[in-house]
């Protein structure tokens, strides 16, 4: 009918880019797909031209957009060239009617067109706005549009499908019944990144990974037309428009902007706050925020997830007619720098102890001699370079120490010529489940090696990192010279233990695996500081050079034998403290912590003795990269830095003694003060007792005078005490205190303190006299039942001003102290002191822990001949996760390879893991769960290969993963390597598995490796070339056989010579509850 046709035309013009023909087909019982119309021949001729011209995107929608843009320009011209938000009733009312109150709905606009003087700008403006509102389509988010299409498709299918109507063309229909909620959500997200979109591709993976229903629901509100996804029109003079501009500048960062007492975000940024920070959306919209005092805790939820956040603060100034506050970029908070460096100078908390680990930026160079990894720690301004690493060692390093995004990867020429790395980026899993962002660099980007190779690699990666760090608004950009090279591998130190591979690290409890006990949890006590745990973990994953390991071992032994108590140490995060100093955000509490580290270092050096102190300095020099000549120079440097801090910081900060000058007013004297104590705490608590009072004498004196004036005004106006015009305030207050009437006056609580408005008031005006009035609160409303006088109000304002001046002066002195520390080059002493405290905290904690557990030091032979294989003697070894008296001990006297056989559950995997862990601990200088007299040769590689499992993400079966690890083992390990291989070849047929296992064991023997090869493939024992090899010893795990039956056997967990060909599998199966009938059938 004609009515239907007009309705369809209306829908085609105003709907969200809908096809008119599609609506017709839907309403007449046909069904349609995304891109084609089903039953198109049934469309009436008068609609076919619309079907051709409006399919999918639609020319009608395009023409409407052009018309809307033209109307916007005309409206702007009639408004004096100023932009006008047609969605704002106030702006429209002001432009058309000259006030803010006249309604501007459709009826009012039509009336204005008819009644306003003809041919005026206001009349034309009303007509244009009316036309604009008629033409402007109702906006739908992509998800709403998609949901509508789903419903239409289902309705069409329900109505139109029958036996006489074929299902042609249904392959592309989205049916609600056939799509799960998860699939629908994924489709909604993917739609945001299809075609022309302003949302950065970076956010796609994060939106797809949302798990909270409240966050997923908000995704339906996102639209492509805004970089934040917040598709709401905003005038250029609004806060929302300003936030949108900042998102355009920082498309890969979450934008968090200060708005009054809150920080707010919009669109996808707000959704991520809901997901990760647990915030609630404002009014059900994609808008979220947190109070100003929760900013750091909110950021602490985002940076561990890998997000970078740009934070904007208000400057207090207003701009433009709309009085929009000016804002500035205060800081960029990221996984590499997770502490928000703003307004911390007067903070009293040691917040740096609570912050997350600062992730390093990482560059990986594929060079001829292997991979070189460069780690850049921005907080500590330190760089570590690891050379000649394998892919497996890099993967382990990235798993144990997740880097900040992006990772820079320099391809070698062969990879670059192919255009890609075979199998993807070698050190990232194929599906990149870690979500790492990798920037590939071309070999042409590599400058020629014109200097030391280590410094050359450091310089190359630093240049790329600095491009990320030094954004346009950075006021104090970093340069290459600000960074120092640490943990440099010295030349000519002999054999070095290389960093562990992922599988080895997992098997010895250094990577997260619930089935394997943590090694660090045994090395240090559960109460050890986080910084100490990180240091021990780092040493175990990348064992230090032999001379550093020897120094660690010496200090551990020295501490255990020392009878005199050593100074207590505290491991503090050096990176955060140094960052606070560099950005002049260090508070008095931070300076107190730094001073404590400096003093503790001097006390430690003196208490340790000359030899132990020299070993400590050697470790400190290795960790910091700073040249330390001798202990005397370090003591002098620490003394100078500590003295500088002590001259500025108040003594109570570092000696714990309370000052007696708070608050300033005499009102606090006695039990009944004139003014509540909380008033002085609120106004003076954020700056008093921070620095030496002698440095702010004038400001303190001014505050005291203002406080006395205020107290006197309150005493005379509120309490009605007789005025003494000829006396100064302090003298008058002293007279009042000495008089008898003071008890009478102070016994009545007449002063009320309004904390929110920082005001002192009274409610007893009728008893005191005239001159009182009701003050206004911060919202400019009269405060009922509260009164004050002009004299009190003026005195209060003068006191608040004097407190603000004192606050600014104290803050200035603390900032100047940060600058002096840098200018006078005390940073090196502070860096050494902080690292010395962390090292000694780790060593002391381990020494105490090892003594409690009965662990002993192991002598390490670093003078291993090139032609000799590794030897080790570990007496009375027991597993590191067990207590000594609850475990069975075995002595490991090994030279060459052991072929180990045993029944199931007899402990062969346990003894292999325990031996590998003890060897690793010894190589790092730690004590191990062994008896005294143990010794070991320095080894270059430690390789532990445990039982395999499938790795679907990398298209590897258990056997495939096993063979990949074996290939690495045979390639990297040799004469000085320590290897442990468990149950190789069980993932394939017994014949092939036994053949491969025997061939691999033979190759390990021929290469001169030392270690254990454990197996249940007993046919290996019959291979002549293996069982007669001079470097092979056959061992087994013993068990007691009490009777003739296997069921009478019991495990002893003792190691002995010999072979075991009975795995006692049925006994183990019975032990774990396999039904008897199954076991009986297995015997047959």
Please characterize this protein's 3D structure.
The chain has 39 helices and 23 strands. By secondary structure, the protein is of the alpha/beta class. Strands 10-9-6-7-8-11 form a 6-stranded mixed beta sheet. A 6-stranded mixed beta sheet has the order 19-20-21-17-22-23, sandwiched between helices.
Counted beta strands: 23
Q: Uncertain spans, ≥5 residues at pLDDT below 50?
A: 1-61, 138-178
Task: Give the CA-CA distance, first to last residue.
Answer: 84 Å
- Shape type: globular
Q: Can you give keywords for this protein?
A:
single chain; 1084 residues; alpha/beta; 6-stranded mixed β-sheet; 39 helices; 12% strand; disordered N terminus
In brief:
The chain has 1084 residues and is of the alpha/beta class.
Secondary structure topology:
Elements: H1 2-14, H2 20-27, H3 45-54, H4 59-78, H5 89-96, H6 106-115, H7 121-135, H8 142-160, H9 181-191, H10 203-208, H11 213-219, H12 239-249, E1 254-259, E2 262-266, H13 267-277, E3 287-291, H14 295-302, E4 309-319, E5 324-333, E6 361-367, E7 370-377, E8 382-389, H15 391-400, E9 407-410, H16 413-418, E10 438-441, H17 453-469, E11 484-486, H18 502-507, H19 520-523, H20 530-541, H21 546-561, H22 574-582, H23 588-608, H24 610-624, H25 631-648, H26 651-655, H27 677-684, H28 697-717, H29 729-738, H30 741-746, E12 752-754, E13 759-761, H31 765-768, H32 790-823, H33 827-853, E14 859-861, E15 871-877, E16 890-895, E17 897-901, H34 908-923, E18 935-937, E19 942-945, H35 958-972, E20 978-982, H36 990-1006, E21 1010-1014, H37 1024-1027, E22 1032-1041, E23 1049-1057, H38 1065-1071, H39 1076-1083
Parallel strand pairs: 1-4, 6-9, 8-11, 9-10, 14-18, 17-21, 17-22, 19-20, 20-21
Antiparallel strand pairs: 1-2, 2-3, 4-5, 6-7, 7-8, 12-13, 15-16, 15-18, 22-23
Helix pairs in contact: 1-2, 4-7, 6-7, 11-13, 13-14, 20-33, 21-24, 21-33, 23-24, 23-25, 23-33, 24-33, 25-32, 25-33, 28-29, 28-32
